[in-house]
Amino acid sequence: MTRLAHTDYPIHDLLRQRWSPRAFADRLPDSATVLRLLEAARWAPSSFNDQPWAFLTARRDQPTEFALLLDTLIEFNRSWAQTAAVLAVTVARSAFAHNGQPNRHAWHDIGLAVSQLTLQATAEGLFVHQMAGILPDRARELLLIPPGWEPVSALAIGYPGDPNGLPEGLRQRELAPSIRKPLSEFVFTGTWGQPH
Ligand SMILES: Cc1cc2nc3c(=O)[nH]c(=O)nc-3n(C[C@H](O)[C@H](O)[C@H](O)COP(=O)(O)O)c2cc1C
User: Fold this and answer.
1) Which side of the chain, N or C, has fewer Cβ within a 10 Å radius?
2) Domain boundaries in the chain?
3) To the nearest whole number, what is the mean pLDDT of the chain?
4) Which atom of ligand 1 is nearest the CA belonging to 5?
5) What is the pLDDT of residue 2?
């Protein structure tokens, strides 16, 4: 399903094409394609170039690992993400490697890496649906995440599928247009509240 963001100003096509589906096709990306997505994440900028991220991944044809990752999602997300071609859980290192001080921007940097992965995915005809709805304690236990690392989010990745295969509530959400606040609500000149 192609859908393009209706933007107020022209932006790059990759950004317009990206959205977060819940219906995925059966088709699996080959491992070289999956590696390209992770390579895109690898080249994200990060505070002190600390690269405070880890990605625990499984393709649907790795059933043991896929089931483990699926088990770390809240039930709602599990219901639709089980049809994804690839699942990933992102994990952030809480302290800088060079001095052990807390890294206040670790989650920010994970977001950047996921954003790069997502745009590479879009360029490859794949879509990424990020999830905050994970069970962090269960993820830590099942995925053997070491101390000092924190589960952040999960990603469902796949080629777009038929929304008609979704349960009715989800089908309606899948077909609803994406909406955004106008720039005037969140862009200020200098001080807070000063219109742009
Ligand atoms: C960090 C993050 C967490 C999210 N968590 C969930 C989630 O747990 N379950 C879900 O169905 N969608 C989740 N989403 C998807 C958002 O609802 C979606 O990105 C937003 O509605 C905008 O829609 P779009 O991505 O299609 O433009 C999450 C997105 C992000 C970036």
Assistant:
1) C
2) 52-161
3) 97
4) 27
5) 74
Amino acid at 66: F
Report the alpha-carbon distance of residue 117 to residue 104 in Å, rounded: 22
- Determine the residue of 1, 4, 20, 76 to mutate for testing ligand 1's pocket, defined as the one with the most ligand atoms within 8 A of the Cβ atom: 20
pLDDT at position 110 over 80: yes
Q: How much is the pTM? A: 0.98
pLDDT value for 1: 60
Distance CA 114, CA 103 (A): 18
168 to 109, 160, 175: CA distances (angstroms): 36, 18, 11
Task: Give mean pLDDT, residues 39-63.
Answer: 98
Distance 92 CA to ligand 1 centre (A): 19
Tens digit of each residue's pLDDT (9 = 90 or more) over 130-167? 999 999 999 999 999 999 999 999 999 999 999 999 99
* Pairing between β-strand 53-59 and β-strand 149-158 as defined by DSSP bridges: unpaired
Rounded distance, CA 118 to CA 73, Å? 20
Q: Ligand 1 within 6 A of 163 CB?
A: no
Q: If you write DSSP's letter for every residue of 46-101 in order, what string do you get?
A: -GGG---EEEEEEETTSHHHHHHHHTTB-HHHHHHHTT-SEEEEEEEESB-TTT--
Tell whether ligand 1 has an atom less than 6 A from the beta carbon of residue 90.
Answer: no
- Residue 2: alpha-carbon gap to chain centroid: 19
